[in-house]
User: Which sequence fits this backbone?
């Protein structure tokens, strides 16, 4: 259920795999995405299972409607009856409030400054990485008192540069914005390495405490991959502060 979990000075980071939930094929088992065709009851049950396994109150987990952009929302409480905004990053200065991001090949980016008590979760696909969702998220954290040199950054399972094949024109367009994302597949065709691009952006922003998952979602049958399966579930990544 929880494929990776880490705590650093009161900041907590967790990434799910696809197992331990109640969803039926093709979303088996722990689908946490509510907009992929799975039954709402199964998604709600899975979200509760995942939260409880982390010691979290499911009602204190904040989600977002991700649209592959660079908009950031600052939150200090769950949405409740309010509409969930179309953003690709959440930032909070409220300790104990968990932020969640959904992925199935894109890069989940979790950030926290334990000293300032500021945490963030961002969804960095190729479009979001190019548009600058990660720099926008860090800027929002700084506005709440975070310092880049104190930020702890963890990125989760995502399609790797050896597998993310794209047309040559697309690779060139991405490389203009982020040269580090220029890649080649293991079979010798143009590719984009979104994770490498995200980490390069974090490095330029002064975020030094960084780590990334070695898991490629397309290669791992323990993880959902949109590029591999098309109709599939979504993984979740969570960040919160004590």
Assistant:
């Amino acid at each position: 259920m929880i494929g990776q979990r880490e705590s650093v000075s009161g900041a907590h980071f967790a990434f799910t795999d696809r197992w331990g939930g109640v969803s039926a094929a093709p979303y088996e088992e722990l689908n946490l995405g509510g907009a992929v065709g799975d039954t709402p009851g199964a998604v709600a049950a899975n979200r509760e299972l995942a939260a409880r396994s982390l010691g979290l109150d499911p009602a204190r987990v904040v989600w977002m409607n991700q649209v592959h952009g660079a908009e950031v929302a600052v939150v200090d409480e769950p949405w409740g009856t309010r509409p969930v905004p179309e953003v690709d990053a959440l930032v909070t200065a409220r300790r104990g409030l968990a932020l969640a991001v959904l992925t199935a090949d894109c890069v989940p980016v979790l950030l926290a400054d334990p000293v300032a008590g500021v945490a963030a979760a961002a969804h960095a696909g190729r479009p979001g990485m190019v548009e600058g969702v990660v720099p926008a998220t860090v800027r929002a954290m700084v506005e709440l008192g975070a310092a880049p040199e104190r930020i702890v950054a963890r990125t989760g399972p995502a399609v790797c540069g050896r597998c993310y094949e794209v047309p040559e024109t697309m690779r060139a367009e991405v490389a203009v914005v982020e040269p580090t994302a220029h890649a080649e597949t293991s079979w010798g065709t143009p590719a984009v390495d979104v994770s490498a691009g995200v980490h390069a952006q974090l490095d330029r922003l002064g975020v030094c405490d960084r780590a990334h998952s070695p898991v490629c979602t397309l290669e791992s049958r323990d993880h959902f991959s949109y590029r591999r399966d098309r109709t599939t579930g979504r993984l979740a990544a969570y960040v919160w502060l004590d």
